[in-house]
Design brief:
Chain lengths: 254, 715
């Protein structure tokens, strides 16, 4: 499994905001077409690390960075790598569902439209394909032009996944995607994620250790801005190498 | 401890109830005050459209009448009797008789001037007598007494076959228009001398009238109308200045107050208004200004001494007509069939008629505001001296004969024009500014820019207006090219931005955030400097030294110093903070998660703004522009000072205008309470209220629809 080629890689990545370093010397390799979960207590830097991969941190006040972030071997922060292109390769789904105040179809076709696709037939095909991949198609195929706000929370989150998929990314970043959902919606979402991991690389930030255990092939444990331990989920949960990891996994802090 | 808590709770509840009552009361008071305000406006303005009323007042018998007039207080009707004396008939029937000195009975003809102050009579031996007739007011304690004063001016032999057509007088001289078998003549009578001017009329004069100034005469024959200018005692024969054939047989004529319009009455009930207008080329032509419908031979027309209404006395009826509004105001109810004389009271508050048997009938009149009707307020009106119907606002003039022209259209157009130019200038600027500050500006700039722009709203509008009128207007006039350049600045920057977006990404990346802002500002400064340096040369090279002159000569465009462009700048200055603040708030209310989502999907910041932020904030943006419009429509001081207050119907940016608010501010303090102008101004206020009310309603309705369309935003 570890022989799979790297989708994402960081080299002595240091990042932070203002005068505070949030991440310190992170060296991490994330293999292709697997689910990698980032776990760790609040404020450990999971989300910041995740946002380094599609440069969403750039929009936050006082962000600074040092070290390399490689996306399929290409430096994400290289000035010649257009931000828009990076983001169409690295999709993202946020903590709370955030559909646009538009129809379901327009929500899904947003990315392709921004990328310059104009043909309605092509867009319609993309919408259907993306919704199918997000396992939402059967639920919304009769009301593609209804407002996205009519969907339930779980459906909205899967809509956001479909929306991210429509741009055709090989990598999908999920930032605590189930934290605003009830257990049934969460289960459905996890099923979708697992299904998706056959085709795309998924990086999942989660607070929920059971979720990481259920869906992630690999898990990385971060603590106070440092990468403590990284490895296959089953191995790590069964026999963590580090004491800190064990204490976190057994609920001694968090 | 528990007791303390209970007491505390009780107190909190009491305060809560008290505050709830106070707040409810305050809100209700605001609603009631608004309602009362509207009610006041309606009550004060609606009477302007009230229809006139006349009521009959009783009959007093007396001797056989030839002519009659009434005093200002409507106390006594003065009737000229055939036996050669004046009968002053009071309201309760008492009669004072004053003999006409030197008049040999029986009197054949007698005629009062339109103002009732001069009397001419032809006596039994064919002499023409002219009298001046006054009634002086003296006070005996609390009682008002009218003291009659009859003074003979002159007398002259009239000759046979002559009939009196009109008389006017001034001081101790009078002019009498006399019709003869083969024409007409004007007899000039004064204490010193008597002379006559023969008027060259084709055929016997049937009707005629003199202007109050005594300078012009109108003479109608059986089939034509002639107009004579410059009646001079020295001239013995005068040719008509203009003449026109008539399509009906005239019977009587009178000149309306203002000396412009002649009203002709005809054999079969025709009533027509004529006026003399400068002809194309040179000279004058007679122009039919109005036609009124009615039936029954017209015996006499008497003009009002107050405004443009006149009494038409027919064979069986008497009507009061109004020239400007082309309306028949009313017919006198219970008009006696055998009436010989019918006239209006000097103050237009009454009318009277004297029958062949000498019975005096009186009416009280309440004409209210005959010059104001929905048609005269909102449609083009053909005023005296105009060739076509126009919309004009001119509420006061120099002479007593001036007719107020109260069309609200120029004011409505002016108001909308001012608001439109203000919005053209301020809305793009304020909206773009809000978007920039909210979405694109370097962090921290917002904290500086927003309070500064809101501070603009704190500048008193009188100061803005003052600066615009005395500083900006001359400056814009002097540097029109630079002003045009300022207007083009925003589109130019946008164009440069588009070109820049095509530049290599590597260059673009060097310019971001604060550096970008500095470059844009620098560009503006450089462009401004270049324009200032180049302007005089451009003036010389392209515009022959002066743009304003060039505009007029080449394009026929007139330029007022205080014009819509200046108002656009000044009013825009007042509107920008409103639009900016509300728009910025609306943009701030768009959840950042939506922006993040669109950025994460590969949208550029502009694409995120265009596709997500602006649509989501559109109800707020629309409301911002609408509130700005409401402010621009209602703003008074700036437009009062910077528009030039010319009530024009022009939409040109180089012409001034007059707004409804400014008109109310200027004219209401000088409008007599309860008068037509006062009521029309209140009506204007009501309209203005309706305008802003409608704007706010539309804003609310559209914002609501947009809100529904974009749904409730995800938090």
């Amino acid at each position: 499994m570890t022989t799979a080629p790297a989708a994402l890689r960081t080299r002595s990545l240091l990042a932070g905001f203002g005068s505070t370093a949030v991440l310190q010397a992170i060296d991490l390799t994330i293999p292709e077409r697997q689910i990698t979960a980032f776990i760790g207590p609040s404020g450990c830097g999971k989300s910041t690390l995740l946002r380094c991969f599609n440069r969403m941190n750039d929009h936050l006040a006082g962000f600074f960075r040092n070290g390399e972030v490689l996306v399929h071997g290409r430096d994400a922060y290289d000035p010649s790598f257009p931000l828009e292109e990076l983001r169409s390769q690295v999709g993202m789904v946020f903590q709370k569902p955030n559909p646009f105040p538009q129809s379901i179809a327009r929500n899904v076709s947003f990315g392709p439209r921004m990328a310059g696709v104009r043909d309605p037939a092509v867009l319609a095909e993309l919408v259907e394909a993306s919704l199918r991949r997000a396992q939402l198609w059967d639920e919304v195929k009769d009301r593609l032009h209804a407002s996205a706000f009519e969907l339930s929370g779980g459906q909205q989150q899967r809509l956001c996944i479909a929306r991210a998929l429509a741009s055709g990314p090989q990598i999908l970043l999920l930032d605590e995607p189930a934290s605003a959902l009830d257990p049934i919606a969460t289960a459905k979402l996890e099923e979708t994620i697992l299904e998706l991991s056959r085709e795309v690389t998924i990086v999942l930030v989660t607070h929920n250790l059971q979720q990481a255990a259920r869906v992630a092939h690999r898990t990385a444990f971060l603590y106070l801005g440092k990468l403590i331990e990284e490895g296959e989920t089953a191995a790590m949960f069964a026999a963590p190498r580090e004491r800190l990891t064990e204490e976190y996994l057994t609920g001694r802090f968090g | 401890m528990r007791a303390d808590t209970a007491r505390f709770r009780a107190r909190a509840r009491a305060i809560d109830r008290w505050m709830a009552g106070l707040i409810t009361g305050g809100g209700a008071a605001v609603l009631i005050a608004t309602f009362l305000l509207v009610l006041f406006l309606v009550i004060e303005s609606v009477p302007v459209l009230r229809s006139p009323r006349a009521s009959s007042e009783g009959v007093v018998p007396q001797g056989v009448p030839l002519a009659a007039a009434e005093d200002e207080y409507r106390e006594r009707v003065t009737v000229v009797g055939a036996e050669g004396s004046l009968h002053l008939v009071g309201r309760d029937g008492e009669v004072e008789v004053i003999p006409l000195e030197g008049v040999q009975p029986p009197v054949h003809q007698a005629l009062f001037s339109a103002d009732g102050r001069f009397l001419v009579a032809v006596d039994g031996v064919g002499r023409l007598h002219a009298f001046s007739w006054r009634q002086r007011v003296i006070w005996e304690g609390e009682r008002r007494v009218l003291q009659p004063r009859l003074r003979a001016i002159a007398a002259t032999a009239a000759g046979d076959g002559k009939h009196l057509l009109a008389v006017v007088g001034e001081g101790s001289s009078a002019k009498v228009l006399v019709g003869t078998e083969d024409g007409a003549s004007v007899v000039h009578l004064s204490e010193k001398s008597t002379s006559a001017t023969n008027l060259a009329v084709a055929g016997p004069a049937v009707a005629g009238a003199l202007t109050a100034s005594g300078e012009q005469a109108w003479v109608a024959t059986a089939n034509g109308l002639q107009w004579f200018q410059r009646l001079d005692p020295e001239v013995s024969l005068l040719e008509p200045t203009a003449s026109v054939p008539l399509s009906f047989r005239p019977t009587t004529a009178a000149v309306l107050l203002g000396d412009v319009t002649l009203v002709l009455g005809g054999e079969s009930g025709e009533v027509e208004a004529w006026q003399a207008l400068p002809a194309a080329g040179a000279g004058w032509r007679l122009d039919q200004a109005a036609q009124f419908h009615g039936s029954g031979r017209v015996i006499a027309v008497t003009p009002s001494q107050r405004e443009k209404s006149f009494l038409v006395q027919r064979i069986t009826a008497a009507e009061i007509l109004h020239l400007t509004s082309r309306r028949t105001l009313l017919a006198l109810p219970g008009y006696p069939a055998d009436a010989v004389v019918a006239r209006l009271s000097p103050r237009l508050d009454g009318a009277f008629a004297v029958t062949a048997k000498g019975a005096v009938h009186r009416w009280s009149l309440q004409l209210h505001h005959p010059e104001a009707s929905l048609a005269t307020l909102f449609l083009p009106v053909r005023y005296e001296g105009y060739e076509r119907a126009h919309v004009v606002w001119q509420s006061s003039g120099g002479s007593a004969g001036f007719e107020p022209k109260l069309s609200l259209l120029p004011l409505i157009v002016g108001t909308l024009k001012g608001a439109l130019y203000a919005l053209l200038f301020s809305a793009p600027l304020a909206l773009a500014g809000a978007l920039y500050v909210n979405q694109f500006a370097p962090r921290g700039l917002r904290e500086v820019v927003k309070p500064v722009i809101e501070l603009m709203a704190a500048v008193p509008s009188v100061v803005v207006g003052f600066l615009a009128a005395l500083f900006l207007a001359p400056l814009v006039r002097e540097h029109l090219l630079i002003s045009a350049g300022v207007l083009l600045a925003a589109p130019s920057v946008a164009a440069v931005a588009v070109v820049w977006s095509l530049a290599p990404a590597r260059w673009q990346r060097r310019l971001s955030g604060a550096r970008e802002l500095v470059v844009v500002l620098g560009m503006l400064v450089v462009a401004g400097t270049v324009l200032i340096v180049l302007e005089p040369h451009l003036h010389q090279a392209w515009f022959g030294g002066d743009v304003v002159h060039w505009l007029y000569q080449r394009l026929g465009v007139t330029y007022d110093q205080r014009n819509a462009m200046v108002v656009g700048f000044a009013l825009g200055f007042a509107v920008i903070p409103i639009i900016f603040t509300i728009a910025e708030d609306a943009l701030s209310n768009v959840p950042p998660s939506l922006v993040a989502a669109s950025l994460a999907l590969g949208a550029t910041p502009w694409e995120a703004a265009r596709t997500v932020v602006i649509p989501a904030a559109s109800p707020g943006l629309f409301a911002a522009v609408m509130l700005g419009l409401g402010r621009a429509v209602g703003e008074t001081m700036i437009v009062l000072m910077a528009t030039g207050n010319t009530p024009l119907m022009s939409l040109s940016p180089f012409n001034g205008m007059r707004t409804m608010a400014a008109t109310i501010a200027v004219e209401l303090p000088e409008a007599p309470y309860g008068g037509t102008l006062y009521r029309v101004l209140i009506l204007t206020a009501l309209l203005l209220f309706c305008f802003t009310f409608a704007i706010n309603m539309v804003a609310a309705a559209v914002a609501e629809r947009l809100r529904k369309r974009f749904g409730r935003l995800a938090a």
